[in-house]
Amino acid sequence: MRRRTIRRLKNVAALGLSAAATLIGLAFLGAILWTLFAEGLSGFSVSLFTQMTPPPGSSGGGLLNAIYGSVILTLLGIAMGAPVGVLAGTYLAEYGRSSRLSTAVRFINDVLLSAPSIIIGLFAYELVVAPMGHFSAISGALALAIIAMPVIVRTTEDMLTLVPQGMKDASTALGAYPWRTIVSVAYPAARSGMVTGLLLAVARISGESAPLLFTALNNQFWSTNLREPIANLPVVIFTFALSPYQNWQQLAWSAALLITLTILVLSIIARIAVSRLSPGGRRG
Amino acid sequence: MIGAELTSEAERSARHVAGQRLFERLFRGTTLAMAILVLLVLGGVAVSLVHGAWPALSRFKLAFIVRQVWNPVTDEYGALGAIYGTLVTSLIALVFAVPISFGIAVFLTELAPAWLKRPVGVAIELLAAVPSIIFGIWGLFVFAPLLQQYAQPWIIDTLGSIPGIGALFQGPPFGIGVLTAGIVLAIMIIPFISAVMRDVFETVPDVLKESGYGLGATTWEVVWQVVVPYSRAGMVGGIMLGLGRALGETMAVTFVIGNAHDIYASLLAPGTTISATIANEFTEATTALYRSSLIALGALLFLITFSVIAAARLMLLRLGRRALPSA
């Protein structure tokens, strides 16, 4: 009888601790979001979206050039990373499903998926910045593309594998070549899952700062020249938050809130899309 | 008349087939090329890092790894301080993150009612989506002052006076430092480790668990004696994946570690990591050797994380690809 009580107590204690661990995890998310709203919301105004980043020590100003730069870098990164990712994923899922090459590509892709982003930044520096002789938006976009690529390879392969073989067989039976089956049957069937992969990739790269520090750098002014450094939200947060100017710090918090909200909304949309796609599956 | 029509029909069909064949070859070739490109990217990263690191490595030889000096004025560089900081912060992160992630995984798979599972699971995953730099400014402006005011004086008073390990917890409470960086890293890798653990826990066959319950085991006993042994390899894989993250994490650490190249006995003292050093100093590196030394640091980090991540992926590979997180 006593042994049973001890076992019960142990059970309650262990499960209580696991619930406490979950609360700790949620508390950190809550604490971070609360801080962002408390510090960043007061800086939200029209000028935040209409004015350039101000020079040091001045008042006012906004984040227009940084927002524009971040959007450009992210879109360029996706534009370069997505075709490679989708086609490589197509190869893995359709043409070389169980070939030795595919096993190697899958493994390397998984390694790239978790590789430190600052290393990818160094790669882009060596590849583009060093030969060009100066920092540029295009080198930043390249770094982001390399970070986005493995996410897209992975989701594309997973989603194409989910398409029922019977659908593809039906297309083949009508005389369609494999490329036609993939483009006209598999892609449409896997479309929402593949879009989810793109959204996750956008969410992943739009907050990256480490690889941009020595590729796209920063630019206090409006710039649309891809061969020149370009302003972007993550690097602006880095520079402004560590500055002694109160105005810059306020802008850093507002930028932090803006970028986090964008990413969280993208991630939630991606997850809803996935759960609609497959009731059993939780992840994208 | 009819014959001519037939030939043109046959010709058209032959042309169609030829076109289709050509397109098929092109499409297949392109997808194959892109798959190979994925391999080339990783190869390119390795080659470019070694190329960029070469001046520093040929100057300092292997001593680069074991020398504890970082002096841009005399152009003398050694990586020991940064390597030490990288390993210690990641270790601290694991000490905090592993038990909490295990708890979260147990809660999500065994304890939480169905209606709570999904929202809590998604909330924890969202923690993984928060950008690194946000953890950095939160850590510097909110978390570090809290630690400095409440936790660190207590740590110094109690743990600091224990003989032996007390040396780890002495000195003034700066707020920022190695310990703070480790804790912030822990928060960042919790979602990754708990997601993998939850997924491997879910691969445990219900029959096994039900057998445990049938023998009268409590929930905890089933978890500890059935679920954990069954999913041990996956759990280790998940922990190593988290370790890989922690080793390479940059921005959050850069904000809260204090950026000192010296090695102090105390965990409360400032330090630096490989990635924080690169992030802080790369654009300010004035000499070629300085820049090359920073790239050599990057090459070291690549080597370390590559081994850890590869080992983790190999362990998880056996469980099937479904058990892997996508980000």
Keywords:
heterodimer, A: 284 residues, mainly alpha, 0% strand, globular, disordered C terminus, B: 327 residues, two-stranded antiparallel ribbon, 2 strands, 1% strand
So what's the overall shape of chain B? Answer: flat
What's the number of helices of chain B?
12
**Spatial extent as radius of gyration of chain B:** 27 Å
Average of the residue pLDDT scores of chain A? 90
| Secondary-structure element pattern of chain B, one letter each | HHEEHHHHHHHHHH
Category from helices, strands and their pairing of chain B: mainly alpha
Which percent bin holds the helix content of chain B?
over 70%
Protein architecture, described:
The complex is a heterodimer of chains A (284) and B (327). With 284 residues, chain A is mainly alpha-helical. In chain A, 74% of the residues lie in helices and 0% in strands. Chain A has 11 helices and no strands. Chain A is globular, with a radius of gyration of 23 Å. With 327 residues, chain B is mainly alpha-helical. Chain B contains 12 helices and 2 strands, in the order ααββαααααααααα. In chain B, strands 1-2 form a two-stranded antiparallel sheet. In chain B, helix 6 packs antiparallel against helix 9. The longest helix of chain B is centred in the first third of the chain and has 59 residues. The termini of chain B are far apart. Chains A and B meet through helix 1, helix 3, helix 4, helix 5 and helix 6 of A and helix 1, helix 3, helix 4, helix 5 and helix 6 of B.
